[in-house]
Amino acid sequence: MKHLCTCFFLIIIFTLQISAQPNIIIILTDDQGWGDVSFNGNSNLSTPHIDELANNGIIFNRFFVEPVCSPTRAEILTGRYHVRSGVYSTSRGGERMNADEVTIAQILKNNGYKTAIYGKWHNGMQAPYHPNAKGFDDFYGFASGHWGNYFSPMLEHNGKIVQGNGFLADDLTDHAISYIENNKDHPFFLLLSLNTPHSPMQVPQKYWDGKKDKPLAIHNIYPASEDTMFTKAALAMVENIDDNVGRINAKISQLNLEEETIVIFMSDNGPNGVRWNGGMKGKKGSTDEGGVRVPMAMKWKGHIRPGIKTETIASGIDILPTLLDLVGIDHVYSNPIDGISLKSILNENSSEADRYLFQFWQKRTSVRSQYFRLDDQDRLYHMQLDSGQVRDVQQDYPEQYQAMLSAKKDWVDNVASLLDYDSSRPITIGYPGFEFHQIPARDAEFSGNIHRSNRHPNCTFLSNWTALNDEIYWNVDIVEEGDFSVEIFYTCPEEDVGSSFELTCGDARITSKITVAFDPPFTGAINDIYPRMESDTKDFKSMSIGEFRLSKGPQKLSLKALDIPGNSVMDFRLLMLRRVK
């Protein structure tokens, strides 16, 4: 009886410790610039719900990330510069973090947290790069960068293909709200990774109606380069984001979780177009100030004094160490991190000692200190006086210039040089513990007459498969041998029905035949409010083609036609391999 009482007491103590840990919600948007919020002075739009987070928490007014999506996301997750984690691109495998990278989700999960991500992942599709393999219990969204349709699109839920429900940002927020409700009595980490205002430019009509005919009050510093209709489309999408942030705020308040929940709002890079951005030079893809400075606000009622606006420079690499510090987790890092905890400035508005932050993309490196930026051409700018980076001041500040040149060279030589631009790294299949293994057209190589539907491969399909010597293939690594069933996602018009094909992987082989026509119309672009850069999209039909046993090791996974009675075999979108238990 004494032992039972002791165990019961320990269970109570453990439960109290767990319940004392605050929840964490990160709302991460896609291609929203520093200037795309009204709390930073943009009178072209209204973001009252995002402003509420900022005004009742702390604004990090000089918060920096990387110029594009995948690198920033890797840095938020790991606290390390993305070049250390192997991220060198935004598609075709270059977006994957190295398998040994440890994410904040893994750390929190190991310390009693429930974890979920809803939305865009963009750091790898197949395990061990998939979010479910990186510490997230629940994932609903898409793993690629671009997505071609935001209205009830094809998505995945923990690896399984599913259909979205309505406008994607709203749908993702619906899932986030349900998650908060279902986990209100247990500490949770929620990453709501919204896909907007990234193109394609789509938004429910009411938001566009409020913007399309309204003149812009302020413009970019280079107004001749601004496409006003694109700007209006982006701002309409941001106002939809704001309404969804309001829904999250309301749910937290309704459940009396405000004092138990840390909420962070931020974006992953600068604006995806030339529009008002506080007079800064640069946009998405640029290592200049405007390409890497983003809105960032943090609220924790009762713990962070409201109304703080700090000018201390900070970065996406600081998210992980700051949050672990706030929730009291003393983690021993297997890989050294680059970020620092910002806890000391949350209530005191004090300044940290000056430091250097590095932005890197496509072998271009820019360095930021508290007051200066050394750009990728080694020009020095005083950022407090010259946000547009007009006047090179290296002659005025020779010591600062030499110090930043030296720091840049050291970082490039000892950190950026570690990056391996290896596009041949194989796709993994059969990772232990995972049932679903997506093999998309996005990651395929192909030969012969086959075409990709768009130069941006993320949500593309392959067409013009017209000859017997045409081939679609992937370099794969079977991590653990086993039996797998296979589905293929295709379209085919009635006149082309009847083609037979084979799927091979090493010595394993499946033969199948298209027997059912499926030729739907294109549906993605019909919702565009501005011409797209992505592939147009359509629905694809799933067909089971059989099972085969795959042996362990690197192999070539290949699709080839055996007979083509019509004009082409099919338009191909995806293979889904499912481990047979």
Automatic annotation (TrEMBL):
Matches recorded under PROSITE patterns: SULFATASE_1
Domain of life: Bacteria
Keyword Acyltransferase: no
Keyword terms: Calcium, Hydrolase, Metal-binding
CDD domains found in the cross-reference section: ARS_like (cd16146)
Record GO terms (molecular function): arylsulfatase activity; metal ion binding
Coiled coil regions, renumbered to chain: none
Pfam families: Sulfatase
Domain Sulfatase N-terminal: 22-329
Similarity field: Belongs to the sulfatase family.
Listed PANTHER family: ARYLSULFATASE FAMILY MEMBER, ENDO-4-O-SULFATASE
Annotated protein name in UniProt: N-acetylgalactosamine-6-sulfatase
Organism: Portibacter lacus
Gene that specifies this protein: atsA
